[in-house]
Amino acid sequence: MTYSLVTGGVMMLGATQVAANTQYVDPFIGTGGDGHTFPGAVVPFGMVQLSPDTDSVFRGIDPQPEIYKRCAGYHYDDTTIVGFSHTHFSGTGHSDLGDLLMMPITGEVKLEPGKADNPDEGYRSRFSHDNETAKPGYYQVWLQDYKVNAELTATTRVGMHKYTFKEHDKGSVLMDLTHSIYNFKNKVIWSDVRVIDDRTILAYRATNGWANNRQMYFAIEFSKPFSDIELINLDNTRYRCNGCLTEGNGKKPSTIVNYKIPEAAGKAIKVVADFEGLKGEPLMVKVGISAVSKSNALENLKTEIPHWNFDKVVKQADETWHKSLDKFEVEGSLSEKRQFFTSVYHALQAPSVYQDVNGQYRGVDGEIHQAKDHTHYTLFSLWDTYRALHPLLTYIEPDKVSDMISSMLDHYQQSHDKMLPIWSFQAHETWTMIGYHAVSVIADAYLKGIRDFDVELAKKAMIDTANHPHYDAIPEYKQYGYVPLDVLPESTSITLEYAYDDYTIGQFFTALGDKKTAAEYYERATYYKNVFDPEVRFMRGRMKDGSWNPDFDPQEAKYMGAFTEGNSYQYSFYVPQDVHGLIKLKGGDKKFVERLDELFETELSYEKIKEHEDIAGLIGQYAHGNEPSHHIAYLYNYAGEPWRTQARIRQIMDTLSSDKPDGLAGNDDVGQMSAWYIFSAMGFYPVSPGDLTYALGAPQLPKISLALANNKRFTVVAKGLSKKNKFVKEVRLNGKKLERSYITHDDIMGGGKLEFTMSAKPNKSFGQSLSARPPSMSNPVNNNFLK
């Protein structure tokens, strides 16, 4: 089986042509609106994300709204590009990275990026989407002002540029070590650059951004020698080398300060390399990155791309992607395939590799470590991704899950606080968001039989994290059975998320046979009841003295309030571990369903949520653009009315998803939004990762088939699916009629066929009985562990 660039994404198998699923990926989906994705070149879980940046950061006048739109460095609405940097977040609600910006230039070289509304004053260039393309592992754009066609591709640790100068024989490449994707004026702590020879440069910078003192090293190699190079420092000291790297060339160096081997150091370094003879052949650049050293960056470069064959790297990236994407076989419309496979593409970008080819990486203790028995990963946006992304990876990339957990355990061992990661990236803990959701990821994987990590260490790490004396009021949580609002803001959300995490710890220790420890955490998992006010039937902030927060509005979401990026309407349904217990608190099935309908049908005023950009994608109070809502549509199943879940999933899909640049309802959040789409398109969702069950919805494509690691295939078929036929008439698993409104992990791993027969009318008897409903702590009829 070989891949041909000529066939445009078609696999040749003998005389048969089989379309590779890479053709359905559109990296521009999510780059508009508030999706916060980037369109550039990346391979699955790549350390390098080489992508265009359409704006630079600091503007001096409240830049925050503009920065928020460009958390990934690029926004589809923009019409100018400042260059191409090598590290980016995909879909986050926070910005950082943007390491080593490069820009090909013709004519006068300006040293500042200028402003988007006046590109001529800086080194930025206009561009048009009509002359811009992207596919997995490849990006291209025509820079109008410089008449340069820029192409990008990448391996795991190396980015490769190809610049074709259409009208100029002379040109330059600007390398800006001051560039960043973060609202912080003096981000660079220190940087340096050293010219090794007339093709090679080594560089370094340390930055204070979302992560403080984050270090990155670069090895930069050009395909042809530069005719001149200039190193510019913050104080405008210029180190120029006109021919000084060539012995006996007879040229007199034109310098302000001249070194035999030029180098510069300071808080703001920029480099301009000049080239001649550019009309004859493209100029190519390879950039290896490392968090350890310049020599490692150079080794990464030499190892992963030892040649100058740009098309070969593009082909390798494409082949890597199709191996991942082609685990799925999908039937549906072109738009549906584009949405589905782009979701898979986004879901496989993080966590990202964070070690060099020699196994070295920088730990959260700042020291250099050697990975021996696993690949070290970074970028754990766990408040987002524990919900669906990590459960998804247990099926489509199970061989990497143990390494990701081992990386979390590395973090635990190396951290001063002896904590599992909360929201960490590139050897730094940001302490962003709430909960200790690494325990959910570990428990869910272990219960599914993914256990190639240090289980004894995981036990200790989970217990230490859940009982940390200084993290987010854990002592008070244990003392009062909830986190008091007069101790810590966002206390109600924190209480609810701790309770869920504690449930997964209970599941983990139950599986290990430690019933005593499990019982302790199952008890803590019931603490959600302590922040439920029965008078108003909402979750509500509570004080140390037991009184309820008098300043209560269930629709309001505000900073320093009782909830995290959400309101009480949304968080009053966050008890994934014990939905049946929550139903009882709310007054039974009927009242629970009424409150769910109320959530979807009560308009949410912008004034109530204006402090939170992340609360987006609204259907009433439901906010699909933010994680606390992601499981809610599936909760009708627990009250015996799965037909309502089926209708809500279709409503969400039809109104909040598309294959356009603004096709995501909110931040993709490192793949969580995409993972929600993948599960929901298949017709089921992990409401409570760690309980090994999936609540059924309704499939959104006629057929989706997944190749499993055990050489089996799990296929979902939706017979009669149409815009009208959105309800499930009946479900069969391997030919046997399924009465329950959930499936299990074993059902999936057993392979076979899950067949839905769709109808325009709801089947209101399906999934109605208690034994047919998804399990939770207060439904012992079908719960695996609590009996």
TrEMBL record:
One of its GO terms (molecular function) is carbohydrate binding. InterPro entries: 6-hairpin_glycosidase_sf, GH-type_carb-bd, GH92_a_mannosidase_put, GH92_N, Glyco_hydro_92, PNGase. NCBIfam families: aman2_put (TIGR01180). GO terms for cellular component: cytosol. Residues 765-787 are annotated as: Disordered. This is Putative alpha-1,2-mannosidase. One of its GO terms (biological process) is carbohydrate metabolic process. PANTHER family: PEPTIDE N-GLYCANASE PNGASE -RELATED, SECRETED PROTEIN. Residues 24-290 form the Glycosyl hydrolase family 92 N-terminal domain. Residues 296-759 form the Glycosyl hydrolase family domain.
